[in-house]
Amino acid sequence: MGGLLSGLALVVALSGWLLAPSSARAKLLAEEIELKVVLDARAPEMVETLERWVELNTGTWNREGLERFAKLFSASLSELGFAVTIEPGQEIGLPDRAASRSGPLVVARRPASPDAPEAPRFLLVGHCDTVFEPDSPFQEFRISPEDAGQALGPGVADMKGGLVVMLFALRALAETGDLDAAAWTVLLNADEEVGSPASRERIEAEARRANFGFVFEPARPNGAMIRSRRGIGQFRLQVVGVAAHAGNDHARGRSAIRELAEKVLRIEAMTDYTRGVTLNVGTIQAGTKRNIVPDHAEAWVDVRYDDAERGEEIRKQLEQLAAEVFVDGTQTRLWGALHRPPKPASEDTLHLLQQYEDVARELGFATPASLHAGGGTDGSLMSAVGLPTLDSIGVRGGKAHTEGEFVVLGSLPERAAIAAILLRRLSGGPLASVPAADP
Ligand SMILES: [Zn+2]
Q1: Considering the entire predicted model, what is its pTM?
Q2: What CATH number did the domain enclosing 145 receive?
Q3: Structurally, how many domains does the chain consist of?
């Protein structure tokens, strides 16, 4: 038997397919339909896997959870013939997290068959961390009380659902022998939700060696893909003033709050919607007591921008503003990073997106118009070093980073089938038929 299904099952699947509109089925090969049918049959197993993974907490700062997850995920890839290394986490240089280490980085490789010297090199990227730490009330996987076709849970969409899609697509391709037609690197990082400070260099280095990049972040609930993304920066201003009694000694005080307030207004005024630039002062912490002139004040600023030059301009403006003094005797320190470059809709990326959407359409799935998104991902890093990168090929879902985060359960087999078929097409198909593994 050359495939995953018995002859009869395949005949049934194919005859069902003949009922689909002829425009849709025109291009699908029997092997591709087989992948779809097999993945559909594994939908319950995909949901079970997702439930287990979601209920293992992997907040960015929960190193124990991240290490356990890295082992689980690595074991699944080893079974498919990947050589896996788990690299220990690194010091993360975030100013409000001194001496914190990231979780481990999983690097898994599977070479192409020696018979395929021209095989393409694929880089598949995912992150296992979530924004929900062990002290969050949002820990459980559960079917949505409003819609039985959806499940809620921390990371169901962003992106443990995407990791399930990746793993099951790879499994199906391993069973058909299609994995041998490409060289694969899977990178699983654990610091994506804080901007990938520890894994960035590694992601960029792997991206330079690959021909195509794939990131398993979620698509929109209706299936809309992300065509391009804005760049993101994060900055912190820290003002030091001079404390003084507000009643007896007010004139001697140097208010850090007043200094910061002057700066906040100027930062907010840098927002320019017409040029695709927004600056948001998201948090402020300052002062100790009502009757003390405050000697410290601190603000975090989120920056979004559409082209790399504008990002650098904003960085310079913020540096100048930090150096300016409005209240004599205060000092301001600036920390910051443009941690996500913009991901423009390059021709290569649009071509990949087109191919993805073609497969989706041929399988009969809706393909709403793709979007320009405000949020960046590791795909932005890959794209910035020149790798054609298709982002948002994980599940359909939404409300990421909130306690309403959900996944459309039907999208697990759907998206795994689209990904598997696309990867098969890009690799040029199987080298030889390989006997199916016993289930
Ligand atoms: Zn994510």
Answers
A1: 0.87
A2: 3.40.630.10
A3: 2
